[in-house]
Design brief:
68% helix; 142 residues; mainly alpha
């Protein structure tokens, strides 16, 4: 991909991730894994939270256990934490490639970079840290 194609891929992927997380929060009452039947999040708070998780600032203006369903927390926010970190790694790698490869327009493929950053960096790191936390007695349960 050229620099413009890579940039557009990052932007489109980020917008789709934002829309997914926003919809998940605004429709959580209708979705499974909501045993307390928590109501949907208002659109402004849902957008603020989705946008902050999308750009990896993770600003939280809600009380997680009393306003968000298990599905929203596990699928929405956990997935977005992985994806936003992976996108950050991809942007860093393409920036480094851009400085190194001054004579070519090919900077790599965003999808390949995203997959590699998740499979080779984030998943192994999370598995090791999860095992450490489990040995310390910190577990998540429903």
């Amino acid at each position: 991909m050229t620099g413009k194609e890579y940039t557009m891929s990052v932007i489109v992927f980020s917008i789709l991730s934002l829309i997914f997380l926003l919809a998940l929060q605004m429709l959580q009452y209708l979705l499974p894994l909501n045993p307390e039947k928590l109501s949907n999040i208002f659109w402004d708070l849902a957008f603020n939270t989705a946008y902050s998780f999308n750009n990896n600032t993770n600003w939280q203006a809600y009380s997680g256990g009393s306003s968000l369903s298990y599905l929203t927390q596990m699928i929405g926010f956990t997935l977005q934490n992985f994806l936003s970190a992976a996108v950050g790694i991809c942007v860093l790698m393409v920036l480094i490639r851009g400085f190194i490869k001054t004579k070519t327009k090919n900077l790599g493929n965003f999808g390949v970079d995203l997959t590699k950053s998740i499979l080779y960096i984030l998943l192994p790191l999370s598995i090791v840290l999860a095992m450490f936390l489990t040995t310390q007695g910190v577990v998540q349960s429903l």
